[in-house]
């Protein structure tokens, strides 16, 4: 059993707002469904104090915005996007169409077809998360999606120019400065000026997540996302300063980020706690990171790495960082995680910002049953079948007749009987 030398605080009572989020979101969606652009504008004014002549950026506006982005930022965006593109292309090449002949004259196959249209939500809020443009828009385009619209909110009444640059360079076909529930609903439903999409990807706050949840079914979505999570597995050789730094790097995402250390060394665990407390006196984002650490931070001491990996699998965390002598051992020992980060030279921030793997990942233990966003999420695997042999058609017809009547599906049975009749000339009472 693990020994917790720091435990998460008792779960706070739900804030009054949390119980009203679904109702608020439903009201916005219903209004936009009925009133289109007029409702979108109303909620943009209400929630973001944003009501431009057009939410959609023209080509001229995009070029003007990008011209004001520092040259180094543009170079960095292009370099990061090239990393993302290379990995996404390799993933796409790993997905193959197939066709087999399961018996003479019976051909079965599947094809991987890109979704026709995708909406990408690029969050704003506290930070301009321009990296989300790479992960959603660029990945969809690499999958072969023909139309991708990107939506991102204004930040303090201003257009986030670096985010717009990232969206444009990622290949967005249209860019809207529009955020929140109104953006998700407009993309999912379609309005006079916003084309309806088939799928929406991208992280967001509780309202955005709820909007995606409520629209699921009308459109596809990538994941039901929650707050960012980080978990570090460390042995006695790990550096507590590195552990503390990396825990806080994720805790600054917001006030509700679980930041967990599982270690085989009590000394490492206690030193990490001390260093975290020291770093929080200097970190510019300490207000957010500190709240996450105080409320959701945990440090568990275990007997050995086998126990550490088993406990980490129970957490099923979004980001799992392995700081041990043999980090690749986790590839064999662990099953439940959004993404693994192996060794001291690798950090979760690389995955968030630059390395090329996708940072839209499962949270709230969803890693038990799904991975994160990738090229495959933007593809539909569809099957087809063809029977080219009359003999095979007759044989399957007889089998179908028997199988369908065992389930009392007479119509199905007769469809099979007909193929038997066409192949063999056999007679049935229902055939006239």
UniProtKB/TrEMBL annotation:
Matches recorded under PROSITE patterns:
HISOL_DEHYDROGENASE
Its annotated pathway reads:
Amino-acid biosynthesis; L-histidine biosynthesis; L-histidine from 5-phospho-alpha-D-ribose 1-diphosphate: step 9/9
Q: Which GO terms describe its biological process?
A: L-histidine biosynthetic process
Protein's UniProt name: Histidinol dehydrogenase
Describe cofactor binding as the record notes it: Binds 1 zinc ion per subunit.
Which EC class is this protein assigned?
Answer: oxidoreductase
- InterPro entries in alphabetical order: Ald_DH/histidinol_DH, Histidinol_DH_CS, Histidinol_DH_monofunct, Hstdl_DH
Q: Name one GO cellular component term.
A: cytosol
- What's the stated role of this polypeptide? Catalyzes the sequential NAD-dependent oxidations of L-histidinol to L-histidinaldehyde and then to L-histidine.
Binding positions (Zn(2+)): 250, 253, 352, 412
- The active site is formed by 318 (proton acceptor), 319 (proton acceptor)
Q: Which reaction does it catalyse?
A: L-histidinol + 2 NAD(+) + H2O = L-histidine + 2 NADH + 3 H(+)
GO MF: histidinol dehydrogenase activity; metal ion binding; NAD binding
Family under the similarity heading: Belongs to the histidinol dehydrogenase family.
The residues the record assigns to binding substrate are: 228, 250, 253, 319, 352, 407, 412
Tell me the organism: Talaromyces rugulosus
EC numbers, comma separated = 1.1.1.23
Q: Where does NAD(+) bind?
A: 121, 182, 205
Q: Which UniProt keywords apply?
A: Amino-acid biosynthesis, Histidine biosynthesis, Metal-binding, NAD, Oxidoreductase, Zinc
CDD domains reported for this sequence: Histidinol_dh
């Amino acid at each position: 059993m693990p020994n917790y030398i720091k435990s998460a605080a008792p779960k706070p009572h739900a804030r009054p707002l949390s119980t009203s989020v679904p109702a608020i979101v439903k009201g916005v969606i219903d209004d936009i469904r009925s009133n289109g652009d007029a409702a979108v504008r109303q909620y943009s004014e209400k929630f973001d104090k944003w009501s431009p002549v057009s939410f959609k950026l023209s080509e001229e506006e995009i070029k003007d915005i990008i011209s004001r982005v520092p040259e180094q930022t543009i170079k960095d965006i292009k370099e990061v996007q090239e990393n993302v593109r290379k990995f996404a292309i390799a993933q796409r090449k790993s997905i193959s169409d197939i066709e087999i002949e399961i018996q003479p004259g019976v051909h079965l196959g599947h094809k991987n077809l890109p979704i026709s249209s995708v909406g990408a939500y690029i969050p704003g809020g506290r930070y301009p998360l321009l990296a989300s443009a790479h992960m959603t828009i660029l990945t969809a385009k690499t999958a072969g999606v023909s139309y991708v619209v990107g939506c991102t909110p204004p930040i303090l009444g201003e257009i986030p120019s670096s985010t717009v640059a990232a969206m444009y360079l990622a290949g967005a076909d249209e860019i809207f400065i529009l955020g929140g529930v109104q953006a998700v609903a407009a993309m999912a439903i379609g309005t006079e000026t916003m084309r309806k999409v088939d799928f929406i990807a991208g992280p967001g706050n509780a309202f955005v997540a709820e909007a995606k949840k409520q629209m699921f079914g009308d459109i596809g979505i990538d994941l039901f996302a929650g707050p960012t999570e980080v978990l570090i597995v460390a042995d006695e050789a790990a550096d507590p300063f590195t552990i503390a730094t990396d825990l806080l790097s994720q805790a600054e995402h917001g006030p509700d980020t679980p930041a967990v250390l599982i270690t085989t060394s009590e000394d490492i665990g206690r030193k990490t706690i001390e260093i975290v407390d020291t770093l929080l006196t200097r970190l510019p984002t300490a207000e957010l990171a500190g709240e996450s650490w105080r409320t959701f931070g945990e440090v568990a001491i275990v007997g050995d790495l086998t126990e550490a990996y088993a406990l980490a699998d129970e957490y099923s965390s979004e980001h799992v960082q392995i700081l041990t002598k043999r980090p690749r051992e986790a590839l064999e020992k662990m099953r439940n995680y959004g993404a693994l980060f192996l060794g001291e030279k690798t950090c979760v921030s690389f995955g968030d910002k630059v390395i090329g793997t996708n940072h839209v990942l499962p949270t709230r233990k969803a890693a038990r049953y799904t991975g994160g966003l990738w090229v495959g999420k933007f593809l539909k695997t569809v099957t087809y079948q063809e029977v080219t042999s009359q003999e095979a058609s007759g044989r399957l017809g007889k089998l179908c007749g028997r199988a369908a009547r065992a389930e009392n599906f007479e119509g199905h049975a007769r469809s099979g009987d007909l193929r038997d009749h066409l192949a063999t000339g056999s007679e049935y009472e229902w055939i006239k």
